[in-house]
Amino acid sequence: DEQINWSLPGGLVGGTSKDEENWELADAIWEAASNHGFFIHIRIGPYQCAEYSYGGIPEWVPLTNPKMTMRRPNQYWMDQMEIFVSSTIDYLTLHKLWSDQGGPIVLAQIENELGDTDIKSPQEDHVIQNADGTYATQQDYASWCGALAQRLQPNVVWTMCNGLTANNETINTCNGNSDCWSNWIVQHGQSNLIQVTQPALWTEVEEGFQIWGDDPSNPSDYFWSRDVTSITNDVMRWFARGGSHINHYMFWGGYNRERMSAGGIMNAYSLEAPLCPNGQRHYPKFDHLRLCHSLLAEIAQVLLNADSALNKGRAVKYKIANGSDDNSTWMVSTTEQRMFVYSNHDTDVIFVENDAAHSVLVEIPIDNEKKTKQQKKRLQQQQDSSRGDVMEIRSNSVVALVNGQIRFDSSHIDPQFLLYRRIITPLGSSSEATSSTKIKLKWSSWAEPTTISQSNHQLSALDKRPFEQAKLAQKSRVSSDYTWYETTFSFPTRISSIDSSSSPSSILTNAKISIDTQRSNALTVYIDGIFVGAGDNHKHREGNITITVDLGNITAVAQEGWHNGHDHNISILSESLGYHNLIGRWGASTKAKEKGITGSVTLSGIENLDGDKITQELVDGRLWRSYAGLQGDQPVSLYSTTTSGNNAFTSQNTVKRQKLKNIPLYLEQELSMSSMSIKNNPTWSVAEFETPIFDPTVESLVVDLTYGRGHLWLNDHDLGRFWNITQEGKEVSSVSPDTYSQRYYNLPHDWLRHDGRQNVLKLFNTFGFGGGDDVFLSCIRILLTEMKEVTNDMDGDIVPHACV
Fold first, then answer.
1. Rounded to whole angstroms, how far apart are CA atoms 152 and 150?
2. pLDDT digits over 422-472, tens only?
């Protein structure tokens, strides 16, 4: 199963960013799939959902026309979608990847999880109007998608998943969990054609994803993960009912590089997938699924060449397996116990299911002619004296038998698979190298300016209100999670009259600033260039929200930066934590999504002189300056000790930005950076290190990062967001050190340097050094990690997680 992401740099393939310049979709399909005997289901979309930002649709698309409504019968959207789909199909055709060309692509998907939501305001959504005056419906849009796919590539089977389908052009497929085998397939899918004229395809056996700050046992949205016995239980039941195909979502956990993750989604998409995000096996999940799929491959011809056993579950003779009452009564059941049988001339395949909350003994009729001598001997030993072949089935499980031999039990995990543990070996930190340390990190750091510098004024927007972040980035031609906002304010006259030369005293207590923004957005506030507070919302949702940041007590001490009697500068750093992946379904908008400051900004507090509450609205017609991106990114030549002459990084500001206006300065002077405290102000840091020798087939290199929030890069490749947020309700302690949502970030082997040059690890940290250089830098280590079978003499530390 291969998804094509429209929002990759370059749009599709051979992208323009450093991360994409050596990657080609055609090569990936041929080398990773065709050369290993795989067939491909290509999912073109363009909407993918997938917990990608905007569901995989580039941010600029809905900004091309204010009348666009995505995933609706809206001509502006349909024109953009057709351009992408047509370009994608042309590319796949050029590289001869379709099955009718001898390639491995046998299935293709258009759109994704298209709901039948009523279009409440056709005029407002600029929906296509028919000749008779009626408006097009969502089913009309689904049919248009199917017709588009068939017109552009008529020689492949097209699918549409989990929702509306173009019945004459596409196969309806299921996304979900147990509902796919218990309801969807029984009802012949949402199209009523499944196992009537179309095969049953399960395109997403959903297995969870991770959200920053969530408690795994009580996640805020969806679910964190599923036990492998539950997954295989569902898979077996699907094929018992005549299912033809499944795809695990996700089989490989993967990482969200650059800015790809949707709102609130972690850097590591799924730490609970069968393959860990770093590509290593997740024991015991991987091997249990491997046994499951090995059996399915072996019996595929029997299943596919027989009539479906859907709704043909056979009665099972059973009794409760309590271990004490051997004389309990045998009963017959099709409600909690049943079996499905598939046969050909020499093979019997039987799926036996137990829905009860307890184990049962069941009697299985087996054709003696198809038993091997070994099977006959084993079954003879299992025989009940009064009944035929008897076996025990655990609660809520499925057992698959081939010619009387138990070949797979969804509830039974081989004890050998449980012996593996995650081992980490420290290789380097900022401390002095020792005999056991192979890497010494050498750090350099500098501050991100907390006011918009005069040199960047012409690259910023000046208006009477903050500029919405997504539109500003698009207008500035900048791709960044960050936007700087700043304006000025002054205290009321009575506060301003306080003599600032006197001893320190609070003039505004319990000060707060309330900022209208969007969910999955973080805000950090600075007054006169000094950090005063921060707040965030990291929910996997979208919509308006007000974030209130506690500023504490504001004092009248001039030397501390609180200059009374004139304007003060207030700067706000907005940090997007990703755009929501849902579009036009489950309450999500079909319009352009917003970030940054999107409404009012209110400063409030208690005046110390007489206890009156003071409230000052800062979006009241005063001038605001908005700057897309960060200011402090520097070329490697400014800090690198590398002697190769090849710069590791290109400054963000070397990208040709679009000048917004030739506008006059409105701030009288720029604050000197030398007067700022670097402790809590945003900071850039870089370190160099040599690539250690390790085996990438079983080992991986990770950076252990447990301070701050921001982005990190390896040799100019953006590794995505990092954050030291802990799981909800949990605190880090010596007893429980691994309560971070994520602390390990993979350093891909392909992105490390193997030519003798130093690697360059770069971080932008919104919260700077906090407790100082030593505290911050001691929170960063480089580790080697692998899964090993536990032995008494193994080296390294055992961590409680199967994946990191």
1. 6
2. 888 888 554 444 434 467 777 888 889 999 887 788 889 999 999 999 999
